[in-house]
Amino acid sequence: MSQRHWKRRLLSAIAIATAAISSNAHAQDTSGLEPTVLLVVQQGEGALTEPGPSPTAPSEPAATESIVQPESDLAAPVVDESTYAAPSYASYGAPCNCCQGGCCTKKKKEAAMAKMKGAYQGVFYANDYSYLNDPCYDGPSFFGDSLKGMLNGTLDVGGEARVRYHSERNFRGLGPTGLGLTGNDDQFWLTRYRMFANWRLSENVRFYGEYLYADSGGETFNNRPIEENRGEAQNLFLEAKLTDNLSVRGGRQELLLGAQRLVSCLDWANTRRTFDGVRATYANKDGSIDAFYTHPVKRTFAYEDKWDSTNQDVQFFGAYMTRKDTWLGQWENYYLGLNNDVADFDYHTIGSRIVGKTDSNWLYEYEGGTQFGTNSDGTDHSAGFFTGGLGRQIALTKDWKPTVWFWYDYASGGDDSLRGGDGFDHLFPLAHKYNGFMDLFGRRNLHDINAQFITPFFGEKVKLLLWYHYFMLDEKTTPFDVVMNPYNANNPAGDRELGHEIDVLFQIALNPRNSALIGYSHFNSGKYYSTTAGVPDVDADFFYFQYQMRF
Length: 551
Fold this sequence. Notes:
- By secondary structure, the chain is mainly beta.
- 8% of the residues lie in helices and 42% in strands.
- The protein has helices spanning 3-25, 106-117, 150-153, 527-531; strands at residues 33-34, 98-99, 102-103, 155-169, 186-200, 205-217, 229-241, 246-253, 275-284, 287-298, 309-310, 314-326, 329-340, 345-358, 362-374, 380-393, 403-411, 446-456, 462-472, 497-511, 514-525, 540-550.
- The protein has an 18-stranded antiparallel beta barrel.
- Strand 18 (446-456) and strand 19 form a beta hairpin.
- The protein is globular.
- The N and C termini lie far apart (47 Å).
- Residues 46-65 are annotated as: Disordered.
- InterPro entries: Alginate_export_dom (IPR025388).
- Residues 1-27 form the signal peptide.
- Residues 155-534 form the Alginate export domain.
């Protein structure tokens, strides 16, 4: 690594430290602010995570309130609970007249019920089943509860089963990723199974393992790489709690940071993303700081009878800091580094995120960052991204309180080469959550003006989401897909207008462990497709249905 690169990393570290000091200095009374209540749907690269920022930090507990019911897989709070806790499982659902700490008040019962609803997190190693040991919990029992707290309260076993049907018109097949408008149709089924075991070896040490099996069937065209993985160690690590606030984790582990715009385990995909490496977390009541050094895991072909291996040629590292209660709301600051020894580039991203809610029911979120480094051709890399959103929960009647959001997303463009110019690289995101459910465009060379309408639909167990996107190119070159491949690098764009997408999603919370999704999306192609050589000028449609059970 050149001296210039080391200087840049030093500046990045100084910037992170300065942000941390600044956030401490600005912490004030936040009586007028509340945590943001937003729609969070698990999508990722293997699941459907719905739009809207997550109000939770990488190391904080799940929010107890959400516009989307936490019972559903899509609504599961997006939280990476890095702090290790070892709940006691002395008794499950014990009857409560007057507990040791006093009678079970309505507030205590509601808190226990909220813990039950939020037991499953965006990463399963952060799941919390302590409600099963709460004498004030008088809610329902579920399949799989008997697998928690085994071996004298030291072992939890559980998992997930999911099936999803896709009907794709005009955007299936062809190309290295099978993404983008192609003029081809396909229909197929995706299935996924996950099994985990969390074993507390002692008060301060635990072992966590998670197995994933993903398959597809019925398709006409070859499946996408993210759709099949017939047996994989998704997580496999040891974690040690060194002090009351500091823990270290080493081994294979999923990463989920902030709102998942840059770092996600990609739950919408049939497979999920994971990394090999080490991570340290310092957390207290005011926030957390995470530092990690990892290598992404290389996915092998589904028919190969071997575990996925570590990609030693790529290094992904960084630091992520969260302050929960500042005068601005929740404030996150981060540095993320990505080096690729084979493609010969290094990118460094410094960014921040602010999310909050006012006492007059206005919701807001900002996230943005700058990216610098060296491209594969030796040129300097200078890029950036920005997201801004303003929303409001509107009380139209006593019982009907829909939420409306207006968003603007920007990611810089450059030339049409993947590792050249000043186009932003979105690293390891959950792209599906933000730039359209059809996954046509990645966060690069893009303007996305969009609006959301979220409301209960015939009762609290069904949520309706309407989401409109208007896409444009930043530079008149080519759009990029969700894995950062140029869509049509050989021909210059005839126009910057990419088109319009409308997403309609029904999220059905059957109960806190079973959920369903029914969705339809339509893309109306813009002038880019009618004026650019080499691209089909067609519209596209996407219909899907998903059922998920957790246990």
